[in-house]
Amino acid sequence: MSGAIFILFYPKKKQSDKDGLVSLYARITVHGQRSEFSLGRKIDARRWCSVGGKLKGSTKKVSDFNAFLDHVRNRCYNIHNGLLKSGEHISARAIADIYLGKRKRQWMLLEIFQNHNDEMASLVGKEYSSGTLQRYKTALKHTKHFILYKYKRKDTPVEKIDHEFITGLEYFLKLKKKLGHNSAVKYIVNLKKIIRIAYANQWISRDPFFHWKASWKTRERKYLTEDELQKLMSTEFQNKRLEMVRDIFIFCCFTGLAYVDVKNLAEDAVLIDIKGQKWIKTHRRKTKTLSSIPLLPIAENILKKYQRHPVVVKGNGILPVSTNQKLNAYLKDVAEACGIKKNLTTHLARHTFATTVTLSNGVPIESVSKMLGHTSLKTTQIYAKVVDHKLIEDMALVKYRFTYTGNQKRASTDN
C-alpha cells in the first residue's frame, strides 16, 4: 500500500528554555501512524503560525527559516516517492529514519542509469559519440520496460539486482523485444557498467555480474570478392549521384575507413613522408586510436576527382559525403546496377579492405590492425578467420581434384 503522507511542523511549548524559545518538531503521518522528530531549531512560539506551519514575518531571517522548512518537507516527500518506486513498505518511521540518516539511502537502478546518461550527454563530442549515448539510452529504455513487465514497478533498488535479474533481462530482450543474441548481450553489457558504478560507490555490497560473462556469437563478416570489387569499379553510371556514391564506397574499400571517419576526413589528414608516399593519418572517432593508411592510387584518384566539388571547396571534408542513411540507400541501387547480390553498406567496404584488399594479398595482420585503428589484435583476427575460411574452401577444391586424379591413375594401372 502506498499511503498518503502528511507533514506537520509544530513547536513544543512546554519545553521552553530560559529565553522563552521552544523546540520545533516535525510530525509525519502515514496510514494513521505518526513519527515525530526534532528539527534541531528553536523559535519564539509567539511568532509561529500554526495554520500556515511557518514563522510569521517578512525579514530575511524569517524567510530563510521558512525556506528550511520547505526543504525538510520536500525531502520527506522525495523519500516517500522513492519508497513508492521501489515497492517497499511505507511507514512514517521509515521516512523519518531515512531523513535522519538512521537508515541507509536506497539507490534506485534507473535513477543511477539516468544520471549516467545525463553526464554522458554533456560529454558528447568530447569523450563520447552520439551513437554511444543513443545505445545507452536504448539500454535504459529496455531495462525500464523489463522492470515494469517483470515486477510491475517503475524502478527497483540497485541492491536487489542479482543474477536472476540479469538472465531474466536477457531472456526478455530476446523473447519480448525480438533482439538477436549479440544485440541483447550488448545492452546487458551497458547495464553492467551502471552496476559497476554502483559497486564502486559502495551503493551495493556485491557485484551481481560476478558470475555472468558476455558470450558473443561469431557473425559472418560480409565483404566483396575481388571479382565483385572489379565489377563495381568498372561499371559506368549515367546517374552522377550513384557514381559519386560508388566512388565513396570504393574509397572506403581501399582505405578501410568507417563512414564517420570518411565524413570527417580533413585535408590535413593526407600527409607525405620523406619518400614521397602519401598517407592518411586520422584518429578514429570510435576508439580515438590513430589509423595510418598508405594512400593507394585508386583512393588518391578519387580524391582528385572530387577536389573541385562544391562541398569540398567549402571545406566540408575532402569528399562530398552525405548522411550514412542516404549512402546506404543509394548503395542498394549501385549494387543492382553492378549486378552484385550482396547488401552494400558503408561498413561492408571496411570489411572488404580488411579481407580482399589486404589480408588476402599477404599484408601482415599487425599492419592491417594498425591501418584499421583497432585497439586489439583480437578484433583484426576476426577478419583473418574469414580469410582462413576462404582458403579452406579453395583448398577443398584442390583436394578434390587431386583425389579424383589419383583414382584415375589407379584405375588405369589396374587395367
UniProtKB/TrEMBL annotation:
Give start and end of each Tyr recombinase domain: 219-397
Q: Which CDD domains match?
A: INTN1_C_like (cd01185)
Q: Which Gene3D superfamilies match?
A: 1.10.150.130, Intergrase catalytic core (1.10.443.10)
Single annotated GO MF: DNA binding
InterPro entries, alphabetized: Arm-DNA-bind_5, DNA_brk_join_enz, Integrase-like_cat_sf, Integrase_catalytic, Integrase_recombinase_N, SAM-like_dom, Tyrosine_recombinase_XerCD
Query: Keywords on this record?
Result: DNA recombination, DNA-binding
The cross-references to Pfam families, in alphabetical order and at most eight, read: Arm-DNA-bind_5 (PF17293), Phage_int_SAM_5 (PF13102), Phage_integrase (PF00589)
GO terms classed as biological process: DNA integration; DNA recombination
| The family this protein is said to belong to | Belongs to the 'phage' integrase family.
PANTHER family linked: PHAGE INTEGRASE-RELATED, PROPHAGE INTEGRASE INTD-RELATED
Name the record gives this protein: Site-specific recombinase XerD
Highest lineage ranks of the organism?
Answer: Bacteria, Pseudomonadati, Bacteroidota, Flavobacteriia, Flavobacteriales
